[in-house]
Design brief:
elongated; mainly alpha; 74% helix; 2 helices
Length: 93
């Protein structure tokens, strides 16, 4: 959840109370809830469009495999360099 912990959320709430004041805080919270709902609706719409475009294969895709957080650039470069060394050794023999 973007690295937000309960303590950070509480701190943001306290800061919001001081910055916005108790009079404007309910209106700001309602606006924030509306923005979150609209973003969620846009994400659901995009997901539905992708599902329509891909057809039945959409449910077969392993989305965890495609998570960009899984990829470590250092590991990818290391593997590429080792593959180049192995290819070079095979061709020079």
């Amino acid at each position: 959840m973007l690295g937000l912990t309960l303590e950070k959320l509480f701190l943001l709430g306290v800061i919001a109370v001081f910055v916005l004041g108790p009079d404007r805080l309910p209106a700001a919270a309602a606006k924030l809830a509306q923005v979150v709902r609209s973003v969620r609706a846009m994400a659901d719409g995009a997901k539905d469009r992708v599902r329509d475009e891909m057809g039945p294969e959409f449910d077969e895709v392993d989305w965890k495999k495609l998570d960009p957080r899984r990829y470590d650039p250092r590991r990818i470069v290391r593997q590429a360099l080792l593959d180049d060394v192995d290819d070079h050794e095979r061709t020079t023999r």
